[in-house]
Design brief:
single chain; about 425 residues; four-stranded mixed sheet; 4 strands; about 5% strand
């Protein structure tokens, strides 16, 4: 254990002083802060894209403005256009997104929209003005048509996890942030592990190390040091996220509550801090996922004879991690889909997918227990397998080990 402690201490100190580690930590913190401010930024963009100028007779534009007020800000109402509108015309009217010319054609309403972004207004205009057209066709007052065309839908969580749909959407945002934090931590630290092992091998330092310590213990100490520095990095990112979220709430609460029709703002307004069990589950799956990936990347690094070959050796290892990110995003919307549940048990995928399910749904206890058992066992098996590869790879130069050498390494004790 003394040799493990010595290697751990040296590796831990080296990683903390590494420029890559420091730069990655700072860039990650900046990225998390930007993500926290993203809903506010989206809300700010939405304000200008919701400004509209209406053109037509006063009665028609007044009725249309009333129908559109939930989604758009009517910045001007004009009786007619003397010429087709230009960008300068839109800029002069509060940087409006479009000019909508309204006219009645018999019992139908026709809209001609001159817009900066073709296709952006048609769905919402057609939906909002449908009640007005029904009024023209039937003679029923617009207020009554509008009230009859709206169906009150109230969603309730059958598992009792969320008070309403808005809080569920907020949880999805939190889940996405946590998954991206896990991904960034694994990505940055795994790459540094590979580079460190490759440098030791190419400089022949590895030969000195394995003459003094068993390769499996050397691998264990390196992974343990990487996990420890990963926790420090994670702590910095979590503190950054908490400060950024609090700043958003304090500085932009008015903007989030008054901006027109912004789903991002609504989700940000209903963000609640993760519960203690959710944080504990995140830590558990962070350790499991980090350990599974770290041992594989360290083993891959031992197979490299030149630093330039790192990308070609480690490239296939990124495939399941990237796949897990995509499945986790799908799990945010459908946490109990059959495929999602299946992937929440599979090693390398489970740390991302199962934690996402924990955040956005109520996961049965037996599924959590089974996922933990499978993935802890997989982490141990991967560590054993990677240790054997590490033992062989460190002493191989110029070529990859042959299948026969791999089999021989697996049989060694």
């Amino acid at each position: 254990m003394n040799t493990i402690a010595v290697v751990f201490s040296a590796e831990f100190e080296r990683r903390l002083r590494s420029r890559i580690y420091i730069a990655g930590t700072l860039l990650g913190a900046i990225a998390i802060a930007l993500i926290a401010f993203l809903p506010v930024a989206v809300t700010g963009f939405a304000v200008s894209t919701k400004n509209v100028v209406l053109v037509g007779d006063s009665e028609l534009t007044a009725a249309a403005a009333n129908a559109l007020r939930g989604d758009y800000a009517i910045v001007a109402r004009e009786p007619r256009l003397n010429a087709p509108p230009t960008i300068a015309y839109l800029d002069a009217h509060s940087k409006a997104a479009a000019v909508a010319v309204l006219e009645r054609r018999g019992s139908l309403l026709h809209v001609t929209a001159y817009t900066r972004d073709p296709g952006s207004l048609r769905p919402s205009f057609a939906r909002d003005l449908a009640a007005l057209q029904l009024q023209f066709a039937t003679g029923i007052p617009q207020v009554k048509v509008t009230s009859l065309s709206r169906v009150a839908v109230e969603e309730r969580d059958i598992g009792g996890k969320f008070a309403d749909a808005d809080h569920a959407e907020g949880a999805k945002f939190i889940g996405l942030v946590f998954v991206m934090v896990l991904y960034l931590s694994i990505l940055l630290n795994a790459q540094s592990i590979v580079m460190a092992v490759a440098e030791e091998k190419t400089s022949r330092i590895a030969e000195l190390l394995i003459s003094a310590i068993d390769p499996s213990r050397l691998l264990f100490a390196k992974v343990l040091a990487a996990t420890a520095t990963g926790f420090i990095q994670l702590g910095i990112w979590i503190v950054t996220a908490a400060i950024a979220a609090q700043s958003v709430g304090m500085l932009f609460s008015n903007a989030l509550s008054t901006a027109p029709a912004s789903a991002s703002a609504a989700s940000a307004a209903t963000l609640t801090a993760p519960s203690v069990p959710e944080v504990l589950w995140f830590i558990v799956f962070f350790v499991i996922g980090f350990a599974q990936c770290a041992v594989l990347f360290a083993a891959a690094g031992s197979l490299v004879s030149r630093s330039e070959d790192v990308g070609s050796v480690t490239g296939p290892l990124y495939i399941p991690i990237i796949g897990a990110i995509f499945i986790a995003q799908f799990a945010l919307q459908f946490p109990n889909a059959t495929n999602v549940v299946t992937f929440s048990f599979i090693p390398l995928f489970a740390p991302f997918v199962m934690f996402t399910r924990v955040i956005v749904s109520t996961v049965p206890a037996w599924q959590l227990a089974l996922s933990l058992a499978i993935n802890i066992g997989a982490a141990v098996a991967l560590a054993w397998f990677a240790g054997r590869i590490y033992r062989v790879g460190l002493l191989m130069y110029g070529k990859l080990p042959t299948p026969r050498q791999f089999v021989a390494a697996m049989r060694q004790r």
